[in-house]
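TICKET: design request
STATUS: open
ATTACHED STRUCTURE:
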């Protein structure tokens, strides 16, 4: 039993060391999960929350724009989603030899989505 706790503590410490401090702070509750599968499930939930907020922010922004500006932003948004997904796939591929690959890719998706929300909030009506 003590050995198992040691393995879990070591795993958590390795996860903290593998991510930037701001990522750990934002998702600390996820990194406190018992194993990699639980961490990834938690990060998946965090990504879905962030993506839902992105969609809501995007809809509010588009409604406030002229038709031409809205069309241009819509095209940019579609390209941005492709960029986010492909760049985070590259992160996954870089780490694919290790069990941390999905965790790294999920943090990438969450971070990029949160940044995009901040960018969209610079547009009217925010």
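STATUS: resolved
RESOLUTION: sequence designed for all positions
ATTACHED SEQUENCE:
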């Amino acid at each position: 039993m003590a050995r198992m706790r040691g393995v879990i503590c070591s795993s958590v410490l390795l996860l903290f060391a593998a991510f930037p401090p701001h990522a750990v702070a934002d998702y600390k509750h996820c990194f406190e999960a018992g194993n990699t599968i639980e961490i990834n499930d938690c990060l998946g939930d965090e990504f879905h929350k962030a993506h839902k907020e992105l969609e809501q922010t995007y809809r509010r922004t588009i409604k406030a724009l002229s038709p031409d500006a809205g069309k241009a932003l819509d095209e940019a948004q579609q390209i941005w989603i492709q960029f986010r997904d492909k760049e985070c796939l590259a992160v996954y591929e870089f780490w694919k030899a290790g069990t941390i690959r999905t965790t790294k890719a999920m943090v990438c998706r969450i971070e990029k989505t949160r940044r995009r929300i901040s960018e969209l909030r610079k547009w009217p009506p925010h």
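CLOSING REMARK: The chain has six helices and no strands. Residues 2-120 form a domain with the Substrate Binding Domain Of Dnak; Chain:A; Domain 2 fold (CATH 1.20.1270).
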